[in-house]
Design a protein that fits this description.
This protein is of the alpha/beta class and 117 residues long. Helix content is 32%, strand content 16%.
């Protein structure tokens, strides 16, 4: 089973550190080139592997750790997210209920990822 963290800010790095402490390999990605955060990933540990977004989202389990505004771009990285386990740790602080379509954040993200929103 493969894991990836999409987003490498405070939350993404905290998740990466938890994986590294347990010796678990995990891919990390952002919308930027992996070289731009490779040294930060290496500083966490050898099991933290920077990848391009398109490669990272092929993992079986994807931790979504991006700003709310970015989740739509991430959703477009795959034609379908069917069969994937997505752990949504996206922060929606300051996002209006209208932007969430009256849904909880996880439901709004799920609808976008499946192309329903």
């Amino acid at each position: 089973m493969s894991c990836a963290i999409v987003g490498f800010g405070n939350i993404g790095q905290a998740l990466a550190k938890a994986f590294a402490r347990n010796g678990i390999e995990v891919s990390v990605a952002t919308t930027r080139d992996p070289e731009s955060f490779a040294s930060a990933a290496a500083a966490i540990g050898p099991t933290i592997i920077p990848k391009k977004l398109a490669e990272a989202v092929k993992a079986d389990i994807v931790f979504l750790a991006v700003r709310f505004e970015s989740h739509r771009d991430v959703a477009k990285a795959l034609p379908t997210w069917q069969g994937k386990s997505i752990v949504d740790v996206t922060n929606a602080y300051g996002v209006s209920p209208e932007e969430l379509g009256g849904q909880a954040l996880a439901r709004a993200s799920q609808m976008e990822a499946s192309g329903l929103a």
